[in-house]
Amino acid sequence: MGDVESVGILEKQHSRRTFIKGVIATGATVSSASYLFRGTSLLGAATVQTSTERMLTLNVNGQQRRVDVLPNETLAMTLRYKLNLTGTKLGCDRAECGACTVLIDGVNHYGCSILTHQVRGRAITTIEGLENPDTGELSVVQQAVLEQGGFQCAFCAPGFIMSMTAMVSQNPSVTREEARHALSGNLCRCADYDKILTCAMRAAELARSV
Amino acid sequence: MADKLVGTDYSAPDLRAKITGRARYAEDFRAPGMVFTKLLLSPMPHCRVRNADVSRALALPGVIDVMRASEVPQPEGPSEAVLTDEPKYEGEPILAVTAVDEETAAAAIELIELDLEPLPFVLDPLQSLRPGGPNAYLDGNQFSGQDGWSEFKWTAEDFADIDAGRFPANVTAPVEWSKGDVDAALADADLIIDEAIVHQSATHHPMEPRSTMAYWENGRLHAFVSTQSAQRTKMGMAGALDMDPEQLSFVAEFCGGGFGSKIPGHAHMTLAPLISRKIGRPVMHRVTRYEENYIGRARPGFQSWVRMGFRADGKCTAIDLIIAQDSGPYGAGDFNTAANIADLTYTPGNMRFRGVPMYTNTPPKAAQRGPGGAQINGMLEPLIDKAARELNLDRVAIRLLNAPGPDVGFGPRNGTLTSVFAKEALQKAADMFDWETRRTRSGQRNGSKVTGLGIGLSTYTAGSRGFDGLMVIRPDGKLYVYQGIGNLGTHSISDTARPAAELLGLNWDQVEIVWGDSSRGMPNSSVQAGSQTTHAHTRANYAAAEDALRKIRAIAARTLGGNANAYRVDNGRVMGPGGSMTYAQVAERAIALGGEFDGHVLPEGINAATVPSATMHAGTGLMGVARDNYGGEGSIYSWLAAFTEISLDVETGEVEVIDLVACTDCGTVIHPRSLGAQCFGGSVQGMGLAMSQRWVFDPQYGVPFANRLYTARPPTIKDIPTNYTWDAVHIPDPTSPIGAKGIGEPSVGAGSAMMTTAIADAMGGRCLCRTPLTPDMILAELEGRPLPFGRLDQHVG
């Protein structure tokens, strides 16, 4: 218990099961509180004390970020409330909507269902990290969405765009039907799905031409 | 020539922010010293808080405050307070704990000892209508401002009819109207379709929960809110907090969906401001999905009985409609609209409506995209098909026969429409679908899969009049359009400015849209609801643009000589007999001239709410400011006709939606791509209502089971039609100088109806008369299995 490295192995197919395993391994309590934001100024409030190290260095959008992380803190909460990367949205808090999707080593994952302690040493990419940092140029997916006027309220857009990014990097020849499957972990309540798929196909086309 | 802006595709000016993560929604704002609020939700559907011992919570390190119901306004009657000591539904907020972080606030809530007195509750409207049945409130189940509370029940004889499956012909209702002679028309009818239909309630579940951040600084409130509207929400929030609206700095640049649940903001947006005022710190009230299920509003369900009379040629000659509505604890108006829309869609001539809105102890109801219309079109369209089948008529032909023409008078006061091209939309959609050829596919079986064809014709309000436009051409040569409407993703903040910009001869890159921040000015605007804004604010902005154009020409004539009317505008210049000027020069000249030219003198007739915003921008350039005085008689309604082909697997109950073909009557098309997306998205939301969005309660304890996204399941990308084509009739509305009508709402009813009719078609015309049509419901019907609940029970599917 408490050895972060032993739970730092991120399974390829991330699931709620591995999330809960991670929670247990880091000594955190499994409860709905895992989905809440816990600040750093604890003022002595009751908390689970373990040997889990709190100061982590995370690799986020190509930068090394030092951050104070609690054992049961989700990546989405760390990004939003500690690193001020609010592009990652919280739509459901627990793996139902995909608004919090981020990339970990290029693979799309729900940020609400991963503990920050599990992603030490991993390359985390958020929506803020897609533009070229030097030129401000949009990624192919962003460019496709901008061209095609994708999304309505767009609260789901960051999550969808991260899933599309993983999709086109894994398979730039993706078909529209395959894209439906690849993006099925993301919910759009405006149901702008037809246009989202058009964006996805355009993104794949752009990815092929790069 | 400047760009053609009306009828062309473009990407909205807020899109880059949305796709880079820079767009900030309410929960994305931070302030130094910000603390967190969490709600204690009622664990019972109706109870009284005898005592709440918060001492241990307050003693928890990090806890700052516990706010009680006694500290917030408590309106009389069936009206909602943000915190209450008599919760009327499971999940209603009782108190709010504020702490240094969310987890501490949640831990503190666990330390609160509640002493609750359980009270009688009712979930199903029919239970409350039964003689001796329970009421949602201690004082009754009906309320009027004049007479207060009373108890309304149907008789044992009425329920003898209902329980025997007969039309309850003798029931009375709090709301009744009729026209023509329904009884005579039914007696004369060649065919009577007589059905009882249940439509479920459905939670709105916008992607963004209704979070709020707020703080006060020197008596001024800074509020960051998730709301559909902007200027109207600001006024509503100021009213609810009893403060001067000009002391409210209100930011709502983005809204992650509302669908009617955040029209003028929402009830709970005042909580963070109230707590912040009390404790003197910025407050984040982050609402979770779980909480959103309770406080986030829902479409009211209906239990309905209908008799429709038809002539042998298929003309509907009578509608006798009874709707008992699940109004939740605080009411909803859907049932009234549903009756009007039934009359409008099928023009029976003879109609009787009995509306029975019933308070229940279920989460609060509110308008949801196409409120009333989406329910009734989804419910009645299968009955039209049933009539067609009985009378051996074509399903499109019977709809063309019954759809309204320009002479329509609908509802109890025989209201008229500004324009109606329902038949044209229906015919065009039928042609696009190739109905004449494809109709033969109906009922074809391939293995376990049966083909069903669906048709939905749906209508809803699509405009309003009389709002203000405000715009300024600045010395940088650009047009700044100040929008008071909200930005919930329909693109109307920019779409409604494009006809105005085109009138002024501007290219789109010469136009800046200013929205979502009250400190930058908001003219008097419509709420962003009822599909109003495209019609209302293309007009209001056009009026302001006409005012600006008049001033531009006057300045050109003064400066360059000649007759003002001889000057024309293009590419950001004004040119005429005396030469030409750039808009930058015109703007500088307007500032030099002052008076009405730069907004120091404002026109008579603009709304008082516009004056502070116009005054704020006086002297910054040439101002166009005007009220929409174009007028017009009649209500503004738009239409969508939707066709689909589905494949129903009769062994699993699974439905595959093969295509969606839609045609709309929405007047002039402003933004084709966005219009296509509205028609699609709304139709898919309607599919969710018809197919998957469950609303299930435990009848014994009054708690909801379908309280998350995976249980109250909206359609996903895997549920959508594989192929989508759409078009419009492209006939302008004659009462607007632009001719555009809104389109957000009718698509939901069309999408729902195309599925209820397609499922019935695949099942050989058997109508389940109940939604949602989940696979288990479909299989139970196909296999003739008895349902484990009453035919008219609500909250079971």
Please, could you describe this protein's structure?
The complex is a heterodimer of chains A (210) and B (797). Chain A has helices at residues 4-7, 16-25, 75-82, 140-148, 157-170, 176-182, 193-209; strands at residues 55-60, 63-68, 101-104, 107-110, 123-125. Mean pLDDT of chain A is 85; it is low at 1-12, 29-34 and 41-50. Chain A is of the alpha+beta class. In chain A, helix 5 packs across helix 7. Chain B has 797 residues and is α+β, with helices and mostly antiparallel strands. Chain B folds into 3 domains: 31-119, Aldehyde Oxidoreductase, domain 3, CATH 3.90.1170.50; 299-463 and 634-782, Aldehyde Oxidoreductase, domain 4 (2-Layer Sandwich), CATH 3.30.365; 464-627, Aldehyde oxidase/xanthine dehydrogenase, molybdopterin binding domain (Aldehyde Oxidoreductase, domain 4). Chain B is built from 22 helices and 30 strands. In chain B, the strands form 8 sheets. A 7-stranded mixed sheet of chain B has the order 3-4-1-14-11-12-13, sandwiched between helices. A 5-stranded mixed sheet of chain B has the order 8-18-17-16-9, with helices on both faces. A 5-stranded mixed sheet of chain B has the order 19-20-28-29-30, with helices on both faces. In chain B, strand 12 (220-225), helix 7 and strand 13 (248-251) form a beta-alpha-beta unit. In chain B, helix 11 runs parallel beside helix 21 (746-762) and helix 12 packs antiparallel against helix 13 (422-433). The mean pLDDT of chain B is 97. The chains are: A alpha+beta (210), B alpha+beta (797). The interface between A and B is large, with 67 and 68 residues.
SS strand fraction of chain A:
5-15%
Q: What CATH architecture of the largest domain in chain B do you see?
A: 2-Layer Sandwich
Considering DSSP H and I runs of 4 or more, what fraction of the residues of chain A is helical?
Answer: 25-40%
Q: Output the helix-strand order of chain A.
A: HHEEHEEEHHHH
Low-confidence stretches of chain A: 1-12, 29-34, 41-50
> What would you call the structural class of chain B?
alpha+beta
- The span between the termini of chain A is 46 Å
Number of extended strands of chain A:
5
The assigned structural class of chain A equals alpha+beta
Number of domains of chain B: 3
How many H/I helices of chain B?
22
Quote the average pLDDT of chain A.
Answer: 85
